[in-house]
Amino acid sequence: MADLITVAVIDDHPAIAAGIEMWCSQATDPRVRVIESGVTPAVAWTGDGADADVIVFDLQLSGQIPAYRELRQLVEAGRQVVVYTMRDDRDAVLTCLDIGAFAYLSKTEGPAHLVPAIQAAGRHLPYTPPVMARAFGTDTRADRPKLTPREVDVLVNWFACESKEMVSRKLGLSVRTVNSYIDRARIRYANAGRPAPTKASLVARAIQDGLIGLEDL
Fold this sequence. Notes:
Elements (H helix, E strand, L loop, with lengths): L3 E7 L3 H12 L5 E8 L15 E4 L10 H9 L3 E6 L4 H10 L3 E4 L3 H14 L6 H8 L11 H12 L3 H8 L3 H17 L7 H10 L9
Parallel strand pairs: 1-2, 1-3, 3-4, 4-5
Helix pairs in contact: 3-5, 6-8, 7-8
């Protein structure tokens, strides 16, 4: 596991970018370092930012229109994006997570949650800050995939275990069967227009849809 996570910050407020850089410099286990920052998404595509492990992204860049298109471009390129913005409304949170953001934080949550979210994103581990938890708890949309009880059981155990092999031993299933259940869940989410290609994103979807609770992790 990497002992240094590199970060590119996209934010049009220099004071915010400077604060994030300072908070990250104080992080340990693993260490976190901001290697690039700027006011447009170009930061993530050029220079050191092109190689950053995690992108910290302000959803409101120079205007009132949320930068969903730019977020989608980053996600589709395989980048780990932590949205860090002043908006804390449910629709913005859920839209960003549906696009594929790793995590969503309000700027009022500060370093207590931003730095752990960056560390989790860099290690591909789930992290649910308070604004995300609130959005999950009030999500009443009808497009939630219907998973079977066995699929949910496998997912819950996989989220709590270090490997699929451990799930296999615990549930008395073959690794191939465990993979099959997980793949079915991913397919159901993809068919619903809400893909979950990573373990962390699948955890977020499952919490968001009430399939599991934070106490299950």
